[in-house]
Design brief:
By secondary structure, the protein is an alpha/beta fold. It contains eight helices and seven strands; from the N terminus they run H-H-E-H-E-H-E-E-H-E-H-E-E-H-H. It is 32% helix and 17% strand. Strand 4, helix 5 and strand 5 form a beta-alpha-beta unit.
């Protein structure tokens, strides 16, 4: 199964109706964004313990939840906001009682506080920023939407729990969203992907550990999310005389 490449500005990926229609029209076959479990297995197994209670956000039709189950992680809950998707996944994996499925919005998780040891997402949060024109200056609504989801993730994590985020977003773009003191977690990341082995681009695993502090530099990075630098001023136009002098100075 070939992984799906990172989205190149798909205008409807944030719309519930797009996904529901897509799944209803027969696109509920297994589909991987950024790659399957095998691509990230080594990194994930270093962060997840057998016996952990795991929540997978925006599961889609990925086999990730099933692959975790088959790898010995038997307590996995997966959510998606598409009823058609969850219906398909329940039917496909009905033989795995340890896999649970629920229709749910990542912005409002219907779980009690401190419910999970691990929250895992793969390309789900990328959708929240897919319409942004400038990744250096994320719009206030997009930053607020991301903050709302991350606050929910922090709330349902147990002390010592880990939030694992797999994305193609580079640290200078994604880390400011995660480096928020309000979430009460630490932050680190690792790159994965090998162009020598056919990978067209690198992916990143971000690891947030609940109850551990951010570094001062990370706190400063997170603060810049809400106070981005102003866009650079355009250079002043050349007047006609300067333009002529410039052209005359060119040696052909």
């Amino acid at each position: 199964m070939r992984p799906c490449p990172p989205p190149t500005h798909p205008p409807r990926y944030r719309d519930w109706g797009y996904w529901e229609q897509r799944y209803r029209q027969g696109a509920a076959e297994p589909r991987e964004w950024l790659g399957g479990f095998a691509r990230f297995r080594e990194l994930l197994e270093a962060e997840i313990k057998h016996g952990d209670k795991i929540l997978v956000l925006g599961c889609g039709t990925s086999t990730l939840s099933y692959d975790l189950h088959e790898g010995g992680y038997r307590d996995v809950t997966s959510i998606d906001f598409s009823p058609a998707c969850i219906e398909a996944m329940r039917a496909r994996y009905s033989h795995c009682p340890g896999l649970r499925w629920a229709v749910m919005d990542v912005r409002s998780l219907a779980f009690p506080d401190a419910s999970f040891d691990v929250v895992l997402e793969k390309a789900t949060l990328d959708v929240l920023l897919v319409d942004e024109k400038d990744p250096w200056r994320v719009s206030a609504p997009a930053a607020a939407a991301m903050h709302r989801v991350l606050a929910e993730v922090s709330r349902v994590l147990r002390p010592g729990g880990r939030f694992l985020s797999i994305t193609f977003a580079q640290p200078h773009f994604r880390a400011p969203h995660y480096a928020q003191e309000a979430f009460g977690w630490s932050l680190r990341h690792a790159a994965c992907g090998d162009t020598a082995c056919g990978d067209a681009f690198h992916y990143f695993l971000y690891v947030m550990c609940k109850g551990q502090p951010l570094t001062p530099s990370q706190l400063a990075l997170g603060e810049r999310l809400w106070h981005p630098p102003p866009p650079p001023s355009p250079p002043p136009p050349l007047d006609e005389e300067e333009d002529e002098d410039y052209l005359l100075a060119i040696e052909l």
